[in-house]
Amino acid sequence: MAARVAGLDDAYLVAAEDVPELLDAPVGSGGAVLAVRLEMAAVYLRLVRG
What is the mean pLDDT of the segment spanning 18-37? Predict the structure, then answer.
C-alpha cells in the first residue's frame, strides 16, 4: 500500500473510522458524508489503476 501512494502527494489516507455513521451525524451532514465516500472511491480507483 505504501508503494502505491508514494507518488500521490495530494492524497490523504482516510479510514472508515474517520467517516461518521449517518445515525450519529447531524441532520444536514448527509451531503458531506456522501462527498467523503465519493472521494474515497476516487482514490481507490486511482490506486487500482496504478
Answer: 70
pTM, full prediction? 0.43
CB 43 within 8 A of CB 11: yes
Query: What cell numbers appear for 20 in the block?
Result: 461518521
User: 5, 11 in Cβ contact below 8 A?
Assistant: yes
Per the CB < 8 A criterion, the answer to whether 10 and 23 are in contact is no
| DSSP annotation string for 1-50 | -HHHHTT-TT-----GGGSPPTTTS-GGGHHHHHHHHHHHHHHHHHHHH-
- Nearest CA among 41, 47, 45 for reference residue 6: 47
Q: What is the CB neighbour count within 10 angstroms for residue 29? A: 14
